[in-house]
Design goal:
The protein has about 475 residues and is α/β, with parallel strands linked by helices. It folds into two domains: about 190 residues, Aspartate Aminotransferase, domain 1, CATH 3.90.1150; about 250 residues, Type I PLP-dependent aspartate aminotransferase-like (Major domain) (Aspartate Aminotransferase, domain 2), CATH 3.40.640. It is about 40% helix and about 15% strand. The chain contains 16 helices and 17 strands. The strands form four sheets. The chain has a seven-stranded mixed beta sheet with strand order 4-12-11-10-7-5-6, with helices on both faces. It has a four-stranded mixed beta sheet with strand order 1-2-3-15. Helix 6 runs antiparallel to helix 13 and helix 7 packs parallel to helix 13. Keywords: Amino-acid biosynthesis, Aminotransferase, Pyridoxal phosphate, Transferase. One of its GO terms (molecular function) is N2-acetyl-L-ornithine:2-oxoglutarate 5-aminotransferase activity. Its cofactor is pyridoxal 5'-phosphate. One of its GO terms (biological process) is L-arginine biosynthetic process. Its EC number is 2.6.1.11.
């Protein structure tokens, strides 16, 4: 089948001119001038950003990096000096289209002027005090989150894994308060990813993450994601064991609304409806991890909104909440709002700076209609990826995902091969397991940039064509 596009694309040149800083800046100026849109930074902001780069702060001594920084990541051999919208510039002035988005984190893109202004203004006033005092920005953010979700209360922390730790602790306290439960059980899913701290890691049923850190926190049982039979059998098994051991019972079911690190696997509606029904019947809490899918990424503000008539008792969010400024949140309904002073805390959680950033992101998402943009651009991107699958059936086996969190499952090739080839063409993508290429661009991505990414991926696939 011939591979063609119904929408004209910007032709992407990969040659020496993109590695020249002055030429690169001219191309950036031209792009913003000829492709203006409501989601991009202004032309003046882009030029100012480019011209005001502090070279000394952005200089990298690779020897020092390798000498002093722990090797917890397999890093690409490049770094970035500045960005604007969905564009990043590396140390050589090379302009790259960002479909990684800080791993689904830079929700409003790079250097969004409203986010820059909010952070700068808050930093010039008071950036941190303590949760020993009232923090107005925290109240404003909590109000926005509650008014835009099914939750009643919010706890703030610093990351996704901390938010999930808070959810695990709250579920355990719920079991203690309701049943005086001494052996609480939380059900989670294989191929999940809930974080790397000990509690969240214990809920993350992937051996590659757990094996070096045994023994794990007790009280977790695993099922197959989207498998109703697996879930019901596990509930029956634990319920029967409670007959002989009444101290052991299910206090919660922790699932991702769509699995991200597990291969970009959207949740099945009927499965989630069954989980909700069973939780109601046995009195357990339904806990959804929205760390990667929340804040509009999937074309809905929250991932659970894809599951008709399903509302969690607890859900967590982090990555896209403040657009790259560290923050996490655990939200719950009033019937499980059980934390008291001393039960849980976070020194930096919900400080003025992070909350001001998150509140700015929330307002940008609303004012610039980014949830709708994620839905429309995601539809265009998925359609283009499906065409790629038709054109290269020996390479791509499946396209899946929601909105702007999409995955290409590969047949013979490794995701790392596609990632490297795309990087050579100035497109940043990432993996979600060894055989899945993940695309998670900023929510400000434009139609032209989607088409550009698809053309680059088409060029990449040609290199692997048999």
């Amino acid at each position: 089948m011939a591979f063609c596009w119904s929408v004209p694309v910007l032709h992407h040149q990969v040659d020496k001119k993109w590695r020249n800083k002055s030429t690169c800046r001219k191309q950036m100026h031209k792009f913003h001038h000829t492709n203006s849109h409501p989601f991009a930074c202004s032309k003046e902001m882009a030029i100012a950003t480019s011209d005001s780069v502090n070279e000394s702060n952005n200089a990298l001594d690779a020897t020092d990096f390798d000498k002093y920084v722990m090797k917890t990541y397999k890093r690409q051999k490049l770094y970035f000096t500045h960005g604007s919208g969905a564009w990043l510039w590396d140390q050589d002035g090379r302009k790259l289209l960002d479909f990684v988005g800080g791993i689904a984190t830079c929700s409003v893109g790079h250097s969004h002027p409203k986010l820059v202004e909010a952070v700068s203004q808050q930093m010039s006033q008071v950036h941190h005090v303590s949760n020993l005092y009232y923090i107005p920005q925290q109240a404003q953010l909590a109000k926005w989150l509650v008014e835009h979700s099914c939750a009643d209360r919010v706890f703030f922390c610093n990351s996704g894994t901390e938010a999930n730790e808070a959810a695990i602790k709250l579920a355990r306290k719920y079991g203690k308060v309701r049943w005086n439960c001494k052996e609480p059980v939380i059900i989670s899913a294989y191929n999940s990813f809930h974080g790397r701290t000990c509690g969240s890691l214990s809920a993350t049923a992937q051996t590659k993450y757990q094996s070096s850190f045994l023994p794990l926190l007790p009280g977790f049982e695993y099922i197959h994601y989207n498998d109703t039979t697996s879930f019901l059998e596990m509930v029956e098994k634990i319920t029967k064991s409670s007959t002989s051991n009444p101290d052991r019972r299910i206090v919660g079911v922790l699932l991702e609304a769509a699995q991200g690190e597990g291969g970009v696997m959207p949740g099945d509606v009927s499965f989630f409806q069954t989980v909700r029904q069973v939780c109601n019947e046995i009195g357990a809490l339904m806990i959804l991890d929205e760390v990667q899918v929340g804040m509009g990424r999937t074309g809905r503000l929250w991932g659970y909104e894809h599951h008709d008539q399903v509302e969690p008792d607890i859900f967590t969010t982090a990555k896209g909440l403040a657009g790259g400024i560290p923050i996490g949140a655990m939200l719950c309904k009033s019937h499980c709002d059980l934390f008291e002073p001393g039960d849980h805390a976070a020194t930096f959680g919900g400080n003025p700076l992070s909350c001001a950033a998150a509140l700015a992101v929330c307002h940008i998402i609303e004012e610039e209609h980014l949830v709708e943009n994620a839905k429309e651009r995601g539809r265009e991107l998925k359609l283009g990826l499906e065409r790629l699958k038709e054109s290269y059936p020996h390479i791509i086996s499946q396209v899946r995902g929601w909105g702007l969190l999409l995955g290409l499952e590969l047949k013979e090739y490794a995701a790392s091969q596609i990632i490297e080839a795309a990087l050579e063409e100035d497109l940043l993508v990432l993996s979600a397991g060894p055989k899945v290429v993940r695309l998670a661009p900023p929510l400000v991505i434009t139609r032209e940039q989607v088409q550009l990414a698809l053309q680059v991926l088409n060029n990449v696939m040609k290199k692997f064509k048999l």
